[in-house]
Design brief:
single chain, alpha+beta, 4-stranded mixed beta sheet, 27% strand, globular
Length: 86
Amino acid sequence: MIPQTILPQNKVDDDLKSDPLTQPNLNPENPTTISDIEGFIEVISEIPIYKPRKLSESIKIYINGSTYRLYVYDYKNGEWHYSPLT
């Protein structure tokens, strides 16, 4: 069995509560639109190598020249993975 780092549950919950991507807009009179989430996914030109602290930091769009990739951080294995975008 591989040992895993376990964070106290309240620390994980606090991080999720402060992350705007995990807080749904539950007001039916003011629905969320695509313009509301614009800017949440950062566009970068260098490959990410750091460990994100929030869920919103774990998804990146990479653009460098003619290379387009979607990077996603794998918290279980502590690695970034990407998929080419066309």
